[in-house]
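Step 1: inspect the first sequence and its tokens.
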Amino acid sequence: MGSLSARALWTGVFLILVSTLAVMGSKLTPTALIPGFLGLLIALLGIWADKRPAQARLALNLALGLAVLGMVGSVRSVPDFITLLTGGSLERPVATLAQFATLFICLGFVVRYWVETRRKT
């Protein structure tokens, strides 16, 4: 499995784990399933990139786009996360932690993608 396709697969697995923990830590809501759905799509794109090398670039670019969307959708959790770190209280702390974890995991994939593509050129 190529480096980026493996990274996409593991990014998806970690996002699914975040979603699972968010559902276990609070009640089942549709928004708690968003990281899991995003992770499933990214993982499937990583598998596609590994199984079809001729289409790997397309699959990984789609995974990158989903990761960027995940980052954009989760960036609003940063102020709430800082509030949690400083000892403040929030109405839904589990949701804030899940959003921040999603942001961090997606950011890791985007940075790794950028590093790997710069290394090849």
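Step 2: inspect the second sequence and its tokens, then contrast the two.
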Amino acid sequence: MSSQSPSAGALPAVSPARVLAGLCLLVPIVVVLWVPSYAKAEPSLGGMPFFYWYQLMWVPVSAVFTTSAYLLLRRDEAARRAASAGSAPVPAQPDGGEQS
């Protein structure tokens, strides 16, 4: 039997950034699916029952969590590419062009 071990310079498949990104995606799903936590009419906000405004509040909050997960994964992928290339990540030019 041969055991497969990652090479010395390889990054682990599960990094803290990936775990945090997963949690960022999981939080809005769990909160919105946990209906007993918001199945009530009070407190109302501008005449709108709690049940409705709580769900509507989670639309932009979910977008923030999703954006955070995307940015975490993008940063993690850049670190992985840099580690596999054996060099530090090259920052992008403000005009979008490549460095020479």
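Step 3: confirm your contrast with the notes below.
The chain has a mean pLDDT of 82. The two ends are 48 Å apart (CA to CA).
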